[in-house]
Amino acid sequence: MTLDLTPNLDPFALARALSGKHFYDGAFQAGRSGKTFPVNNPATGAEIGTAPFGDEADVNAAVAAAKAAQKGWAKLPARQRGKLVAECGRVLVNHVEELGRLIALETGKALRTESRVEAGVLADMFTFFGGLGSELKGETVPFHPDMMTMTVREPVGVVAAIIPWNVPLLLMAMKAAAALVAGNSVVVKSAEESPLTVLRVTQIMNSVLPAGVFNILSGFGPECGAPLVAHPDVKKVSFTGSVETGRIVYKAAAEKLIPVTLELGGKSPMIVCADADTDKALAGAIAGMRFTRQGQSCTAASRIFVHEDIHDAFVAALKAKVDAMVMGDPLDEKTDIGTIISGGQFDRVQSYIALGRETAGATELACSSMPTDPKLAKGLFVQPRIFTGVTNNDRIAREEIFGPVCCVIKWKDFDSVIEQANDSEYGLAATIWTRDLKTAMDATRRLEAGFVQVNQNLVVQPNLSYGGVKTSGLGREASLESMLEHFTHKKTIIINMA
After folding, report:
1. Is 483 within the bounds of a domain?
2. pLDDT value at residue 472
């Protein structure tokens, strides 16, 4: 089966054409078991396509193809590999609109505010890493005058990349682009909720890359992800997902003594000082809480600490801004906020909203308004919620919800708010909003997070090292550092010239 590589702006037709296939060894492949599962549009509940129920047989075939291709790929000069990966980025630029529409259809993320943007960053990530081929350098070591001593960087081999459903294009690119330029081959395990757009990306990239270098499987964790991690020919695992699943992946990889990169959960604090530029801070709260993504982000600023002097005015203004956002069909250009990804996640979010209502002292503010289009009556829409009157010790302020629910917590003492911000099992991201440089610098030193920003709340970008501390993960992504430290090993070479 070969799909036309001309951009297809009809996401429904594209979803049907991509249905029921893995992609490995340079071609679409049917699942070995013949079993498939439905892929649904969360805005309507309708089935838009299917994906194969990947199992150990599929894993074995994909890894065998990747292992066979990796040797030849690694022999290419690093700059040549980089040029090919950068060319993938240039080709993907031509598909930004197509990919944006398809990811909106299968994830429910709004096209204008989320999905089109993600498709653009996908292309940029491959272009960025493609330019780093020349940076795969070794060192000379002054060990002894009669010995030439040097180090070289070598690829680890076959890399397993396991990605989640919330930003599958970006997270696949962060893993795959670095691994490929470093000389590895890659087998991706897509999220069962969003397998189609990443499948299309794999097909597009295989028009540039040698067969078997970049492969993708769909399926569920126990049947597909577990045998992929456990496969003896997989030499590195890069995983993004929940803390619970991350621990399972880490234990399985430890049995083989292979390196692992983990990007896990978060409950990110946003500290707004009394002297902050409130307009910027409000915009930062909207962006940081990822309301346009229905809060489905590991870095979501779901704990917003606001100084007592401005707390009430800040909450009122924040609610007004979210009220003005439009919930609706993710493919409609007027839509700001789309849907929750799945029925299971929808129920989880609703349970936390109920928990917030039961929390002593809490006040619930429902924002925006549900769509009125009858076609969307079965859609997984949830009105964003702001809870005030809670403490940092309440469950709703401590547990990752992964939905459009944030807590605004009043504070007075700076040392106390820093302590509260750090009082979390997570340590992925944090922000501080103030006009005072000394306060800002003090906070950046003391906040326990891997990604700290002052007076802004940017999402992950190419060339910005990204990763967490504590249970938010291990290792870094999106940077030269990640390519060198996580996708190569260092070999020491000594030549005795005496």
Report:
1. yes
2. 98
Q: Are residues 33 and 182 in the same domain?
A: yes
Predicted structure pTM score: 0.97
CATH number (domain holding residue 345):
3.40.309.10
Q: Is 498 inside any structural domain?
A: no
| Token digits of residue 196 | 């189609």
Mark whether 56 is an active-site residue. no
Look-up of token digits 């001309």 = 6
Q: What is the CATH number of the domain that holds 141?
A: 3.40.605.10
Task: Output the average pLDDT for the chain.
Answer: 97
Give residue-wise pLDDT tens across range 451-490.
999 999 999 999 999 999 999 999 999 999 999 999 999 9
Tokens of 208: 């540039």
Structure tokens that stand for 118 in this block: 């993600």
pLDDT tens-digit map of 160-211: 999 999 999 999 999 999 999 999 999 999 999 999 999 999 999 999 999 9
- For residues 246 and 332, state if they share a domain: no
Does position 127 have pLDDT exceeding 70, yes or no? Answer: yes
In the prediction, which pLDDT does 1 show? 45
Domain housing 118: 11-264+472-493
pLDDT in tens, 90-107: 999 999 999 999 999 999
Domain count, the chain: 2
User: Which residue of the set 118, 192, 263, 400 is catalytic?
Assistant: 263
